Each structure stands twice: as C-alpha cells, then as structure tokens.
Amino acid sequence: MAQYSNQSSLVTAFGLLIASVAIVGTQFLGWEWGSGRLIPTIIGVTVAGVAVVVVARSVLE
Angle formed by the axes of helices 2-28 and 38-60, to 10°? Predict the structure, then answer.
C-alpha cells in the first residue's frame, strides 16, 4: 500500500506541474494544441505517454 501511495503522490505532483505549464503556456505564451509548435506538442505527447504507462501499470497490478 505504501508504494501505491508514493506513486499516487508522484503522479498527482506531475499532473499539477503539467497543468500549471499548460495554463501558463496557453494564457501567456499563446500555445495551442495543433498549432504546429514544437514545445506544446512535445509536452502533449509526453503527458499522453505517461498517462498510458500509469494506466497500464494499474491494470496489470
């Protein structure tokens, strides 16, 4: 149970960090999904990949 709690806290912190970057990017840097800019695309693909890994690990356990 302790490992799950640590993992949950880490995933939550990562999610909050990504949400903060997304908010700052969209509000102050003009980022839009599908705009063809490299940074928002890399962030989006990375977050999607992490989400797939987290879900796959929870399903397999």
Answer: 160
How far apart are the C-alpha atoms of 30 and 11, rounded to whole Å? 26
Total of domains in the chain: 1
3-state secondary structure of 30: coil
Residue 39: name the closest of 27, 52, 21, 54 by CA.
21
Range of the domain at 25: 2-60
Residue 2 CA from chain centroid, whole number: 23
Considering the entire predicted model, what is its pTM? 0.58
pLDDT band at 1 (very low <50, low <70, confident <90, very high): very low
- 10 Å CB burial of residue 2 (0-12, 13-18, 19+) is exposed
